[in-house]
Amino acid sequence: MAPSKQVSQEILPYLRLYTDGTVERFVGTEVTPPGLDAETDVLSKDISITTPQTTLSARLYRPNSINNSQKLTLLVYYHGGAFCIASPAEPKYQCCLNRLVSQAKIIAISVDYRLAPEDPLPTAYEDSWDCLKWVLAHVSGGTEEWLEHYADFERVFLAGDSAGANIAHHLALRINNDSNLQCPKMKKLQGIAMVHPYFWGKDPIGEEMNDSVRKSMVDNWWMFVCPSDKGCDDPYINPFVKEAPSLKGLASESVLVLVAEKDILRERGKLYYENLMKSGWQGKAEIVETKGEDHGFYIFNPDCENACLLIKRLASYINRA
């Protein structure tokens, strides 16, 4: 009988890391193929994106019925999962994106950035940035016909949930500082939708002070994916420390922050909105709280009333911003 492998770390409820470097993920590993979704009449396909560092993948979505002269708002989406689980092919994300694309009548791309611990941060940020640059380069032609034919590069949104919302924030800060971004039509993003954003900090605030168990759990998640001597006050996870870039530099015309009443991350989402409004940023922002729900509820229970209302809210924001 072969000897059993030794466990190095358990990051509950997500994964187990063994001393030989292998990773056993407990959730977020299911895969559903792209194609035509009968419920929403949304068509999806997987594509490859070659970057200077590696070849990444993404899943593209568009309404099935579309004419060749039609230009649609472009949404770049970053999935959640604490930077260590999930993918665009995960069935719950496939369901979410199908429904959002159907309601908003947009074209969307969901980015499959690499995950920790195999690829610790900042890999996910660099992968997401490389994909965004690749997408926006299609303003002057490119290799992907759906983007070239249907995307309106004057109406570009970023969106994400949890870790994905964190990524969207950092990319929006980076847009103004990268001269290699090839999209002269887009000086700013039209908007950013941040659903249950994953921000954190060493010192607890608000309800975090009354929930030491979940506070410790979130601490452990971050320390696992980001090997930084700054810990939970690293600017990647805490945008309010003095070393973090000013929110004033957010390259977006508008921001929508969605939080959930029972979410341990709710206080950070509220603080983000408050600090954004005080930063001198020249844009429009709104915050909406879903009562009685916890983190990522609309992903895990997509047919509940509040999940349907959240997707409707996202679609409305994209269409009116």
UniProtKB/TrEMBL annotation:
Residues 75-298 form the Alpha/beta hydrolase fold-3 domain. The active site is at S162. GO terms for molecular function: hydrolase activity. InterPro entries: AB_hydrolase_3 (IPR013094), AB_hydrolase_fold (IPR029058), Carboxylest/Gibb_receptor (IPR050466), Lipase_GDXG_put_SER_AS (IPR033140). PROSITE patterns: LIPASE_GDXG_SER. PANTHER family: ARYLACETAMIDE DEACETYLASE (PTHR23024), CARBOXYLESTERASE 2-RELATED (PTHR23024:SF577). Belongs to the 'GDXG' lipolytic enzyme family. This is Alpha/beta hydrolase fold-3 domain-containing protein. It comes from Manihot esculenta.
